[in-house]
UniProtKB/TrEMBL annotation:
Residue stretches making up the GST C-terminal domain: 22-154
Domain of life: Eukaryota
Known catalytic reactions: RX + glutathione = an S-substituted glutathione + a halide anion + H(+)
Gene: Gstt1_1
Organism (species): Crypturellus soui
EC primary class: transferase
Record-linked InterPro entries: Glutathione-S-Trfase_C-like, Glutathione-S-Trfase_C_sf, GST_C, GST_C_Theta, GST_Theta
Keywords: Cytoplasm, Transferase
An example Gene Ontology CC term for this record: cytoplasm
Name of the protein: glutathione transferase
Cross-referenced Pfam families: GST_C
EC number of the protein: 2.5.1.18
Subcellular location: Cytoplasm
Oligomer and partners: Homodimer.
Length: 154
């Protein structure tokens, strides 16, 4: 999906903030995109699978201790995300939303869809989410996440 997004930014000459031409900002986006797959993506998916998919498939919830371990791993990655990538900036690459923010938020909405609101006790993360949502527009944000957010009601 990262390769496809990068291709689309080049083919359709999207606004610069999505994949900045400024080399330092672009390096920041690239750094996040490289880190993303084995951290945010992996740990968010594990929570989604543990809280939603496995209970649906086996007909019973994951043992609480096991689920707690999966959530702790996600929380460790979220802390790292806040400290290394968000720092004190509005977005990952600085003052404007980028592909890095979209990739991160899409993955973080998976646990939310499974009923695990990871933004609830993390104000810095919640504020960032609000900024990303505002940057893409609430209607598009809702449309992009409507299916995953219905998962917890299945």
């Amino acid at each position: 999906s990262v390769a496809i997004l990068l291709y689309l930014t080049r083919k359709f000459k999207t606004p610069d903030h999505w994949y900045p031409s400024d080399l330092q900002k672009r390096a920041r986006v690239d750094e996040y995109l490289s880190w993303h797959h084995t951290n945010i993506r992996t740990k968010s998916s594990e929570v989604f699978v543990s809280k939603f998919m496995l209970p649906v498939l086996v007909g019973q919830p994951l043992p609480p201790k096991k689920l707690e371990g999966v959530v702790e791993e996600l929380n460790a990655v979220l802390k790292q995300f806040e400290e290394q990538f968000l720092q004190n900036k509005p977005f990952i690459a600085g003052s404007e939303v980028s592909l890095a923010d979209l990739m991160a938020l899409v993955e973080l909405m998976q646990p939310v869809g499974a009923g695990h609101n990871l933004f609830e006790e993390k104000p810095k993360l919640a504020e960032w989410r609000s900024r990303v949502e505002a940057a893409v527009g609430p209607k598009l944000f809702e449309e992009a996440h409507q299916t995953i957010l219905k998962a917890k009601y299945m």
